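Render this sequence as a predicted structure.
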Amino acid sequence: MRKLSIFNFTTLNGFYKGPNEEINWHKHGEEEKQYSIEGIKTGNTLLFGRITYQMMASFWPTPMALQNDPIVAEGMNKAEKIVFSRTLEKAEWNNTRLIKENIVEEIKKLKQTPGKDMTILGSGSIVTLFAEYGLIDEYEIMIDPVAIGDGTPIFKGIRNKLDLKLASTRTFKSGSVLLCYQSAE
C-alpha cells in the first residue's frame, strides 16, 4: 500500500498562506534547502490542488528556479505529479496528470496500487478533505518563527477532530521546527 503524506509550512499562528496567497514569510535557510533536496530525492508522487499547482508550475520550470535551486528544480520538474481540480482544463507542467472528479475515491484507489509514495504540497483544501476521510498517513508540518495578521489555516473547515501522535521533530538553525505526526488511531 502506498503511503500518503503532506508537507506544509505554517506560521506560529497556524496559517499556511497569507491573505493574498503569499508564502514569502517562510524561512529558506541552507538547512531547509537541504531538507527539500532530501525530500525530492525520495521520488514521491507530488499531489496538488489547483492553486498550489499553478503557483508551482509557474516557478519550477523557469530559468530563475533552475539558477536559484537547480537540484530541487530538476526534481520538481521530473517528478510525477497529480493535480486535483474541477476547473483546470489541462495540466501542462511535464509529468502531470489531472484528476477532475471523485478525488477521494481516486486517492483511495491510488493508495491501494503499487507505486511510489505520495506527498501533498500546500493545497490546504485537499489536505482538509483527505484528512476528513482518514486518508493521510503522515503530516509533516514545518512551523516558522513568524506570525502574520491573517491568512488561511492549514485545516480550514475541518469538521471532525483529527487525533494525531507526534512521530518525530527536527529543529533548524533558522528557528523553524519540523513536526511529524501520524494518526493516533
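Summary. The beta strands are 4-10, 15-17, 45-49, 81-84, 96-99, 118-121, 138-143, 152-153, 164-171, 177-183. Helices lie at 30-40, 50-59, 63-68, 70-78, 103-112, 124-132.
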